[in-house]
């Protein structure tokens, strides 16, 4: 099987369809050269197969012979030879993965220069300075990238020549000075490596190719792939291309351009240009660039040709393109193109505008498919308006948006500062229900522990509050915290970006959210695509949250977590009285207070969602979560002592303590031990529904019984629920619609889904707990070092808490849905965990399960509406 293909190779199908083999760069170069007929410097692509073979077992057998053949063919095409002392051919060696990873891997330019060919380049160009400047750049680049020499050593030598800091100024040393600098560089190489700088062109070429292959596993490339969820096993292709020079003279230049503005989406070419420069000068920022419009003034004919190329590229790719080009002595060469990355605002504008494009256009379905969840997040949440001056470190990007505030370290501090009108970031090792009030008061949340489905992450996402979690390098001290070699004092300003995980020192300017009108247009198209196929609901626990969710387009509530109502400041003392009370009048009095409070809560939610389904999950967490921490109480007992109530709370906390509460007394098990608790909740819910009926409303109620694992267990709990429903609605002429179902959140429940379906009207998958119990991972502890190691080593292809694993959790979900619907045709199925807002999981569920609805946080609803439409489009594609 061939491992190398020239750009003009006849593949028998468009090169763009061979991105997996040729990489994005190689496929696009071949497309421009062989399909569009643009001026592309000739070259060839070494395939991703070769990279994967190299990374698995070293230099592939047969690659050297193929490489020699293709070099000779390129030399024939260009009528020059690599390394020729009279008229040398120089080449570039660049990476190009299937999925673009800008700047993450390595590039080597001017390859083929040596002590002999540099003289030939001088003779051919008549420009000795140009020749030795090219040689200097090559030796420095090859030394850093291929030989692993510290780049600062080359910079110091250059500074000694120019008297400038690095290449920060556009120094113009003479040709003899550059020749002397090349000698210094070569001496440096020999001193650092023990061998002379390689002079043989094929040896140089092999070294460069191997360096590009190795750069696939460079730390920055691995980190980028993890953030972008790119498969670590794809590998990169390598393009070897004849060099053209934008630094020949003042009739030459180089630039990077987008066919439209990637920040705003305006239909105006956008980019940077330099006269008498190489491409690396533009992207490295070593010279101040000119706007693209400067080409019109200096090279009017070239500008006209370039804009014609832009129009041709857009018409062919039917999208905005990112390009690189060089002008060599008045001749335009296209060096690269790809579909360009863009901001959220630009993505929305381009998607809508391109449905109305003159000459060519995309369909509304294509427009919906082109916008990503990240694009929508950008326009719905504040972002950093500028790059932070000092980035201290990173954690996990848990809840999108950026926030600025003074660092505080307890919920009480956050509440007090909020009351004074101060902005704060709550910094904790981890959060618990006791921190809820502090999280409300804070602009954002930062934790040292926890994963993407930890308490802090889940609560922050539900409120649309920025959060960075699992910042393992952060150490909280008595006076503040330590991170990235800096000490941050309590009360000092910090900034966090919940979209990237960045933690910055000081007040970073924020750009406020500004949803463009195109968002409403695009989501309207998305809603029409998914109508009647896949509904989008929200997870909401208050009337205000429900109203917010409906304003974002939610079509009901998929999960109302009643325990969150218990955590409100005026409710928690009542809950604790109920826990402390012995069975009897005291417990009943506490339950009665809770019933009245919950009835009000439920009625507010039913008002906000009138006419739409509302799924209420009966109490799920263990009771100890509503009690103070044993450790805190014991510490207080040992220092200042406890009052009588605190002593009772400590006794109760010890009594309800469990070694493994996740597998303990929670969910339906709690209802079995304390049946009055579930009875009270259903009474409150049905009284709220009755009130809505009396007011002319149309409540649709779904009661979810959590953590059931047997049919008998579910049937028993259902009998209590139905008895209470019958009692509370017996006097109503128009009875509210009520269904009873369960949450599938254990492997056993998934396996027994056929039996459970006999007692259920619907299934809702609790994917967080199901993932934990399937993999044996604690969602609060597995992120960070363990998960990163598993992903880097290829032990897992993806983080199962972010994307369902088809062989693990996904297989259980598929099996449960099949068995449930076989036992009860028409069984309604939804997901309401964190995966309910994850586009990849929505696609998987819809394709494999025949999902009826997804449910996510209110602020994630627009993303879920888009993802649901994309899932439907994926099925019909």
How would you describe what is shown here?
This protein has 877 residues and is α/β, with parallel strands linked by helices. The protein is built from 35 helices and 33 strands. Strands 14-24-23-16-17-18-19-15 form an 8-stranded mixed sheet. A hairpin with a 3-residue loop joins strand 20 and strand 21 (480-483). Helix 20 runs parallel beside helix 23 and helix 34 (839-849) crosses helix 35.
Name the descriptors.
single chain, 8-stranded parallel beta barrel, alpha/beta
Structural class: alpha/beta
Tally of helical runs: 35
Multimeric state: single chain
As a percent range, the share of helical residues equals 40-55%
Name the shape in a single word.
Answer: elongated
Biggest pleated-sheet summary: 8 strands, mixed
Give the radius of gyration.
32 Å
Mean pLDDT: 90
Output the strand order for the largest sheet. Answer: 14-24-23-16-17-18-19-15
Can you lay out the helices and strands and say which pair or pack?
Elements: E1 4-6, H1 19-35, E2 43-46, H2 48-57, H3 63-78, E3 81-82, E4 88-89, E5 91-97, E6 107-111, H4 117-125, H5 128-145, H6 151-162, H7 175-193, H8 201-215, H9 219-228, E7 236-242, E8 253-258, E9 270-275, H10 279-284, E10 290-291, H11 294-298, H12 300-317, E11 321-328, E12 331-339, H13 344-353, H14 364-370, H15 373-380, E13 383-384, E14 391-394, E15 396-399, E16 402-408, H16 411-419, E17 424-428, H17 436-441, E18 444-447, H18 455-463, E19 467-469, E20 475-476, E21 480-483, E22 486-489, E23 493-497, E24 502-505, E25 510-511, H19 517-530, E26 535-539, H20 543-551, E27 557-561, H21 562-566, H22 572-580, H23 585-608, E28 613-617, H24 630-639, H25 644-656, H26 668-673, H27 675-694, E29 700-705, H28 711-729, E30 737-744, H29 747-751, H30 753-757, E31 762-765, H31 767-775, H32 785-792, H33 809-823, E32 828-831, H34 839-849, E33 853-856, H35 861-876
Parallel strand pairs: 3-4, 16-17, 17-18, 18-19, 26-27, 26-33, 27-28, 28-29, 29-30, 30-31, 31-32, 32-33
Antiparallel strand pairs: 1-2, 2-7, 5-6, 5-7, 8-9, 8-11, 9-10, 11-12, 13-25, 14-24, 15-19, 16-23, 20-21, 21-22, 23-24
Helix pairs in contact: 4-5, 5-7, 6-7, 13-14, 13-15, 13-19, 14-19, 15-35, 19-35, 20-23, 22-23, 23-27, 27-28, 33-34, 34-35
